[in-house]
Amino acid sequence: MKEAKMIYAFSGSLDTSMRYAVYASSDRFLKHKHAWKAAHCLKYFGCRVYLVAPDLKTFEGSRVYPDLSALQGRVDVVVPCLRAELIQDIVRKTVECEAKAIWFQEQNWTPELDAACVENEIEVVRGCVLKHKTYPRPFAYLNPCYWHGWKVNKVPGKYQRI
Question: What share of the chain is helix, strand, coil (3-state, %, to 5)?
Fold first, then answer.
């Protein structure tokens, strides 16, 4: 008999049962920057994660999609991991792929993007994916994501028993 998957809440209506598209450029994945960390963190939580980068075919054994339109009907949340000036069309692309929410990371939310989301009935969630991770002590105190997520919901790893 298969064990039931635990579902944990993030921010807003987002939880670990949803499907996520991490949207970035290839160097954000290849150089292990924030997009790479966010994708690994979501997988660590047990979420279904799709990688989206226009100039990358595969990454670490996973298929990388060239655009969000290739994921039409397959994702619930888009997680953009680029600067705000590089994601001005993210709302249009989110509508095209039929996602219901955008999880803006630190520093890439703008009031204009927020207004476009409200106009298109897309939920806006702000804040870093990484602050929901439980960091091991004593090194947790050295990680800035630990301090940013001091009082937010934490999600145990998929291999951790509750």
Answer: 30, 20, 50
